[in-house]
Amino acid sequence: MHAKGPVPAVSIVVPCFNGGRFVDDLLACLRAQTFQDFELIIVDDGSTDDTPAKLATLGSDVQVIRQANAGPGAARNTGFRQARADLIFIMDCDDTIEPRYLEETVKAISAAVPEVGFTFTHERKIGHRQQINRCYFKLFDQLFINRVPCCMVVRRAAWQAVGGFDAAMRDGYEDWEFTIALGRAGFRAVVVPEILFNYRTRDDGLMMSRSTYMHGALWRRIRDKHRDAYKLRPLLKLWWQTRREPGRLRLIEALGILAIANFAPNSWFTALTHAARSRRIADNREPVRQS
To answer: What integer is the mean pLDDT of 19-29?
Structure first.
């Protein structure tokens, strides 16, 4: 981990709000990486517990930036602006990665064409909910369901091209909106087909405590921001263009989801979505199929 000296190959950006208790596990997984040419930037997003005191004990090889609470998107943007590398790896402070994560993702994106703007691996959910997610990126599917993990390696040029994360999305889904923006800007993703990311689910986390219960309103915000992409003609065109790409969502399913979301109150749509998710038992353990 480098705070100064030569420009590293990768800058790691970690937003942290009241997550000091997870920092030791975070540092341990980073020290165990087989790829070590990186700098670590932790953005303390206005923590109100003992997190600032914990971060103050870290060595000079970790750069800590403290800012007033502005949400996860703004915290990531702060880290991107401070990062020195052209490849930026983003992860949350309560998650961990396997020792080969950086080695494999950096290798994958470095060998890819510039149109590949980001890369990621499959994920293992731990904690409150345990599950294996086979992640992928297909823009048509991504407009309806988020199949990209929040932990990814992103080219700085791709982040700049879409104006970064939407800092106004403080209640969550800012990472989902970011990947939609990347896809609409013409960027593609490459997936390392290994389970190298451990996503911690917890009752007090943003996803479990807030985003899940605001799904209807948050997805409506995404649809409003990308209004043209959700019109029928562009949707059909995108489905046709991407129909050969691996994915999970059928056209009829997507149109049904959109119809319900457009006409049902946000609270009803959220409840229906939550019920459908609850009935699924590790559905994405199955191989990704063709549309």
So the answer is: 97
Angle of helix 72-82 relative to helix 174-184, nearest 10 degrees?
60
Give the model's confidence band at 51: pLDDT under 50 very low, under 70 low, under 90 confident, else very high: very high
* DSSP H/E element including 40: strand 38-45
What's the pTM value of the predicted model, to 2 decimals? 0.90
Could you tell me the domains of the chain?
10-202 (3.90.550.10)
Structure tokens at 48: 């109100």
Identify the DSSP state of 38: E
CA 286 to chain centre: 21
Among 181, 191, 21, smallest CA distance to 122 is for 191
- Residues 19/49, Cβ–Cβ less than 8 Å: no
Neighbours of 152 (CB within 10 A): 25
Are 161 and 187 spatial neighbours (Cβ–Cβ below 8 Å)? Answer: yes
* Measured distance CA(154)–CA(88) in Å, rounded: 5
Nearest CA among 173, 199, 170 for reference residue 93: 199
Comparing C-alpha atoms, which of 63, 55, 62 is closest to residue 21?
55
- What are the tens digits of pLDDT across the range 240-278? 999 999 999 999 999 999 998 888 777 766 776 666 555
Residues 6+ apart with CB under 8 A from 37: 2, 8, 9, 10
What is each CA distance from 80 to 7, 123, 244, 265, in whole angstroms?
A: 14, 23, 34, 36
Q: Map residue 53 onto helix, strand or coil.
A: helix
Measured between alpha carbons, how far is 259 from 252 in angstroms, rounded to an integer?
11
d(CA 229, CA 245): 18
Yes or no: say if 88 and 153 are a contact pair by the CB < 8 Å rule: yes
Query: Nearest 5°: phi and psi at 289?
Result: -105, 170
